[in-house]
Design brief:
Blueprint: H1 5-21, H2 30-33, E1 35-42, H3 49-68, E2 76-83, H4 88-101, E3 107-109, H5 113-126, E4 130-132, E5 145-147, H6 159-166, E6 171-177, H7 180-195, E7 199-206, H8 214-222, E8 227-231, H9 235-246, E9 256-258, H10 263-269, E10 278-281, H11 290-303, H12 312-331, H13 336-343, E11 347-350, E12 353-357, E13 364-365, E14 369-373, E15 379-384, E16 406-407, E17 410-411
Parallel strand pairs: 1-2, 1-3, 3-4, 4-5, 6-7, 6-8, 8-9, 9-10
Antiparallel strand pairs: 10-14, 11-12, 12-13, 14-15, 16-17
Helix pairs in contact: 3-12, 4-5, 9-10, 12-13
Length: 416
């Protein structure tokens, strides 16, 4: 039977309440014998829900598809859904509940690095497993996290040189939301900008969720920059782009080049505010393959919205569940330790192309792409690598494919 989004979430929430009081995965009850419980932890409320609801939807969609095809080793996946409420403290509390009380062997969740950092101690201490779908700043080497979004060498190492060489831009104004991801990405940007013979004229931040961008845009206008590198996140993206246009700035003369702005933020702000700007991601809805087109169609049917858009973190949220399934089947059991070993080297034909989990650092091989946004709210892919590239979470600190900092043995801190 096929469930729509509303029925599926309602059923999952009811199950979560029941399993919180009943037998865990490791109990010997008849219920545990034919199901595998997992945690699903995203912000369904608060400022980040503009993005995170779609990540929860994609996760649920993957679970439904796997169950419809027979489940995992004949067992149905039973999600316990929790709301991170756009708050790191709440994320930590909900992660603790899922790992300690519900005793799930895996949690799929988080969008921001702040929420990932908030839950990380739970998974490290309990040796549980977290699947994190968002592009992030790198500089992390955990054996308790599988990272399926882009790291800086898959998102910036292609982007900054392209901006300098193809757009001819030399003076960067870096702007972001005030937390770890934008600040760490700015560090990588500065290194690449200077390596390319350009300069950064400012590095400015406003609080996550900030909606008053008038003063910041005015500083951009007065800075003398010829390009804006945006690491702005969440609902602030909408306010920023709208104010940018409202003050008379245009992307043909002063383009915003973003590491976060995706189809979902553009749908929220209105396509006219982003038309002409650029973003670097491994996945865009515009990828014209049978696999991706079918994925878009299935997602729209699942959420019952013919105009719903897909985006990078959503797509990673979807395919990582299939990587998890393959890992469980390879391991032959659904314990965190077994899944961790089973996921190493797993490959899946995702909507963005072939993805593979690096057996050393548990990050994903992904294909870098750059797109320019059009008046229809979709990107035109104008630069694309021929194949997926190795994830290097410490590239800003000198990591290369021949000199890995994060390996199966752990982080070599002497190289930092």
């Amino acid at each position: 039977m096929t469930l729509n989004r509303r029925k599926f979430i309602k059923q999952s929430s009811a199950l979560g309440a029941a399993t919180a009081l009943g037998p865990s995965l490791y109990a010997t009850s008849s219920q545990a014998a034919d199901e595998i419980e997992v945690g699903v932890l995203f912000s369904l409320t608060g400022g980040l829900s503009i993005v995170e609801k779609s990540l929860a939807d994609a996760t649920m969609m993957a679970i439904e598809e796997i169950n419809a095809a027979g489940g995992v080793m004949g067992k149905m996946i039973k999600p316990i859904m929790e709301d991170g409420a756009s708050d790191p403290k709440t994320y930590n509390e909900k992660a603790s509940k899922l790992v300690i009380r519900d005793r799930v062997p895996t949690v799929f969740g988080s969008y921001t690095s702040a929420s990932r950092k908030a839950v990380l101690p739970v998974f490290e201490k309990r040796r549980n497993l977290y699947f994190y779908p968002t592009y992030y700043e790198g500089f992390e080497c955990s054996k308790n996290v599988v990272y399926t979004g882009a790291v800086p060498n898959q998102q910036l190492s292609n982007f900054i040189p392209w901006i300098i060489e193809n757009l001819g831009k030399k003076k960067f104004f870096i702007v972001g939301s005030n937390y770890i991801y934008p600040r760490e990405m700015a560090k990588v940007c500065k290194i690449l900008i200077e390596q390319g013979g350009a300069e950064w004229v400012a590095d400015e931040y406003l609080e996550l969720g900030h909606s008053e961008w008038g003063a910041m845009v005015n500083r951009i206008k007065e800075s003398g920059c010829d390009v804006v590198l945006s690491n702005v996140v969440g609902s602030s993206v909408v306010a920023f782009y709208r104010e940018f246009k409202n003050q008379g700035l245009t992307h043909d003369t002063l383009p915003i080049c973003a590491t976060v702005t995706s189809e979902i933020e553009i749908a929220a702000m209105g396509a006219e505010f982003a038309a002409g700007s650029f973003t670097s991601f491994p996945y865009f809805q515009a990828i014209d393959t049978d696999n991706n087109n079918a994925f878009i169609e299935r997602y729209r049917a699942f959420v019952n919205d013919a105009s719903a858009v897909t985006h990078h973190a959503l797509e990673s949220s979807y395919f990582q569940v299939f990587l998890w399934k393959q890992a469980v089947e390879k391991a032959g059991e659904a314990t965190p330790e077994a899944i961790r070993e089973g996921v190493k080297g797993q490959t899946f034909e995702a909507p963005n192309g072939t993805v593979t989990i690096d057996p050393d650092n548990l990050h994903a091989y992904l294909t870098p792409r750059i797109a320019q946004w059009g008046a229809d709210g979709q990107g035109t892919i104008i630069d694309e690598y021929p194949e997926p590239i190795q994830p290097l979470p410490y590239v800003a600190y000198g990591e290369t494919g021949d000199n890995l900092f994060c390996t199966a043995a752990g982080l070599d801190t002497t190289k930092l």
